[in-house]
Amino acid sequence: MADDAFLPLVFLDVDGPVLPFTRDLAGLSASLGLRLAALPGRLVWATAWEDGANAEIAPRIGLPELPVVIWPEPAPHHEREDTWFGLHWKTRALVAWAQGRDFVWIDDELTDADREWVARVHPGRALLHHVAADRGLADEDFAALDEWLRGSR
C-alpha cells in the first residue's frame, strides 16, 4: 500500500452518507466499511459526531479507528464571511485541515458555494461529493469517488 502521507484525504460525514436518514445504527453493514476502506485515500471522519464516529460507527462497519476532524470555534469575521458566501460550517475547517493536500469531501449538505470557494482558495485538487441523505453512499457514488481518487495520483 502507498504511504498514507501521499494519499488524498477522504473526509467522511456520518449523518446522510454513512448513516442514511432512513436507517438506524442497527442497519449499518460491514460491506460499507469494506467499500470505504478500498478507496485509494486516507479516511478521516468529518462529522459532528467527532470521536463518537470511532466509538459508534467504525466498529459497526468494520473500520479501524480513523483520524477525526475536531471542529474549531470559528472566528467572528469568518462566520460573517461564511454566511455571506453561503458556506457550510465545515468548509473552511476542512480546507485548513487538508493543508494543501488533495481531498474528497463526502457530505449530504454540500452546495455550489462550497465548491466555488474551495476551488478558489485550496491549492490542491478537491472533489466535494454530494450524497443523498435518504439513501446514503451507493454504487454510483463509490464509482465516482474511486475514479477521482485514482485520477489524483
Task: Give the structure's gist in a few sentences.
This protein is 39% helix and 12% strand.
Helices, strands, pairings?
Elements (H helix, E strand, L loop, with lengths): L8 E4 L17 H8 L4 E4 L6 H10 L14 H10 L5 H8 L4 E5 L4 H10 L4 E5 L8 H13 L2
Parallel strand pairs: 1-2, 1-3, 3-4
Describe this structure in words.
The structure is a single chain. The chain is α/β, with parallel strands linked by helices. The protein has one domain (4-151): Rossmann fold (3-Layer(aba) Sandwich), CATH 3.40.50. The chain is built from 6 helices and 4 strands, in the order βαβαααβαβα. The chain has helices spanning 30-37, 52-61, 76-85, 91-98, 112-121, 139-151; strands at 9-12, 42-45, 103-107, 126-130. The chain has a 4-stranded parallel sheet, with helices on both faces. Strand 3, helix 5 and strand 4 form a beta-alpha-beta unit. The longest helix has 13 residues, at 139-151.
Strand content: 5-15%
Count up the helices: 6
> Which CATH class?
Alpha Beta
Q: Name the helicity range.
A: 25-40%
Q: Give the count of structural domains.
A: 1
Oligomer: single chain
Structural class call reads alpha/beta
Please, what is the average pLDDT? 92
